[in-house]
Design a protein that fits this description.
Radius of gyration: 17 Å
Number of helices: 4
Strand content: 15-25%
Number of domains: 1
Order of helices and strands: HHEEEEEHHEEEEEEEEEE
Shape: globular
Oligomer: single chain
């Protein structure tokens, strides 16, 4: 069932989103060669605890960590580990924050050390595709409008859209209806209504879009070893346009 949130619920989720955005800005300062994703995970858990929040995905279906940390050809749900990051790695940190019962979800892909032209393109196109999708998150539009905008842009730029994982409704639990595919046909799917809260989280690959699952039954990676990137925001459908609850650009330091 698709639910619409009250102003109180949205305000609570917005506070969680602000904290999550602050956490990502802290992570950006810590991602560098020699750091491990387990160290990043430990930092996130401590940061959230210091601010009265908890990592919602820890314990979700038995998941053991505060974050997902996906490196290079890992599309999503990579486990934090003690392997040191090296220059040129791309790493996606994905987390769900629970602050006083309000949830927010955001993933961000970082370059380790100096970037290069190919890596810049992967991240820039993936991030831009997120905002292309957000532009369609308006009352009266349909879910297919979001996926269509992302797919049209990403494929024109030579990247492939992962189809095995989607955005979703969120609050009061992590994954709720509706699913938000990042591909599809404009004008198709459920209609977006004021008060819905969803995630838009395109994952784009440099090679084929298909994924394969690791033996841990969590981590998905590209079938051809190509790199993958992901950017995700939690969005409120509003009569005044989409509201990004996890926006990193307008938060107090």
């Amino acid at each position: 069932m698709i639910t619409r949130k009250s102003k109180r619920e949205i305000d609570m989720m917005h506070e969680a989103g602000k904290l999550l955005a602050r956490c990502h800005k802290e992570i950006a300062q810590r991602i560098k060669p020699g750091v491990t994703t387990k160290e990043i995970d430990d930092f996130v858990e401590s940061f959230l605890a210091e601010h009265g929040a908890t990592p919602e995905q820890k314990g979700y279906n038995g998941y053991e960590y505060a974050t997902c940390a996906s490196i290079n050809d890992e599309i999503c749900h990579g486990f934090p580990r003690d392997e040191k990051l090296v220059k040129g790695d791309v790493v996606t940190i994905d987390m769900v924050v629970n602050l006083n019962g309000g949830l927010a979800d955001s993933a961000w892909t970082y370059v380790v050390g100096e970037s290069d032209e190919k890596t810049d393109k992967l991240l820039e196109v993936t991030k831009t595709s997120l905002y292309k999708g957000i532009e369609q998150a308006m009352p009266g539009n349909r879910i297919g409008d979001i996926g269509h905008a992302i797919q049209q842009y990403a494929e024109a730029e030579g990247l492939a859209v992962v189809r095995d994982f989607t955005g979703h409704g969120i609050g009061p639990t992590i994954h709720e209806e509706p699913q938000i595919p990042h591909y599809g046909l404009a004008g198709k799917g459920p209609r977006l209504k004021e008060g819905m809260v969803i995630t838009i989280e395109p994952m784009l690959n440099e090679g084929a879009w298909q994924s394969t699952m690791d033996d841990n039954n969590w981590t998905a990676r590209t079938i051809d070893g190509s790199r993958s990137a992901q950017f995700e925001h939690t969005i409120v459908i509003s009569k005044d346009g989409p509201i990004i609850l996890t926006d990193q650009d307008n938060i107090e330091e």
